[in-house]
Amino acid sequence: PGLCIPSFCADYRQHCLIETPKSWFDAQSYCRERGYDLATIDDMGAMKSLLALNPERAHDWWIGLHYGAPEEWHWSLADEEFYQKGERNYRNFQNMDVTNSFVSHEHGKWYTVDHANLWFICYDDRYVLVRQVMSWTGAQLYCRKHHTDLVSIRNPEENQAVWKAILRYNVLIGLFKDAWHWSDKRNSSFRHWEQDSFVGLFPESCAVMTSQRPGRWSQRSCHDLHPFLCTCKQPLSGVVLVISYKEIKYMQ
Predict the structure, then answer these.
(1) The whole model's pTM is what?
(2) Helix (H) and strand (E) counts in the chain
(3) Residue 144, helix vs strand vs coil
(4) CA distance 169 to 165
(5) What is the number of other CB atoms lying within 10 angstroms of the CB of residue 233?
(6) Residues 242/48, Cβ–Cβ less than 8 Å
(7) What domains can you pick out in the chain, each with its CATH number?
(8) Which letter, b or e, does each residue of 91-112 get, where b requires 16 or more Cβ atoms within 10 Å of its Cβ?
(9) Structure confidence at residue 237 as a pLDDT band (50, 70, 90)
């Protein structure tokens, strides 16, 4: 292993892959003891950089997502620049069942739904009604592949515009609720699940980037042993490679 070159130690965040398998908690301690933390992945730009890794290094990697925090509502589109102050918190619920994790939109009002298969609306500088029946996670994957993401609604004016775009139909929007949180306490709402993973499946559930479907996230018991990703601004000694959002350098 070597040190990262000066041009690579810029102020943007980097991801450092540690190939020694550890439990999620031991991996968290390893990163924190060196002044960093397990990796937070903020958006698809970060995901694309991570996916550019040499496929021979395919592993399930721990990331910093852990199940067990109080449930919160998030928008699927996590881009911070998309929202002005307070816009992430706009809501227009007609009814709210606390046991449901997803939201549909009908006649301008919002309704909580539980794993319903519905039509949905994507966003891509315009509103795109998709007349295919899918789960919320399936709709999210579709929108990210063909457009930008499931629609976010930031204010009453946008809520009215979405109502006009979907006419009389009941459709899924990009709001969801989960109890996952990031190790470094960042409030990123970005999720990239392989399948619905909004409820923990193990007594202690943590998230990995999977090797079976590269880039998708899945749940594992936090006590399983996997390589892991730290987020850092300076290189760690013994790191095999350092991944930034801008370029990749393999360590010699």
Answers:
(1) 0.80
(2) 4, 15
(3) helix
(4) 10
(5) 12
(6) no
(7) 6-67+181-250 (3.10.100.10), 71-178 (no CATH)
(8) eeeeeeeeebbbbbbeeeebbb
(9) low
Pairing type for strands 149-150 and 241-244 reads unpaired
Which phi-psi region, left, alpha or beta, contains residue 57 (left: φ > 0; alpha: ψ -120 to 50)? alpha
- Alpha carbon of 72 to those of 39, 53, 102, 143, 153: distances in Å? 20, 32, 11, 22, 17
Single-letter residue type at 142: Y
pLDDT tens per residue, range 93-122: 998 887 788 999 999 999 999 878 999 999
Residues 6+ apart with CB under 8 A from 117: 133, 134, 135
CA distance 245 to 39: 12
Q: Strand pairing partners for 98?
A: none
Supply 186's token pair: 């960042």
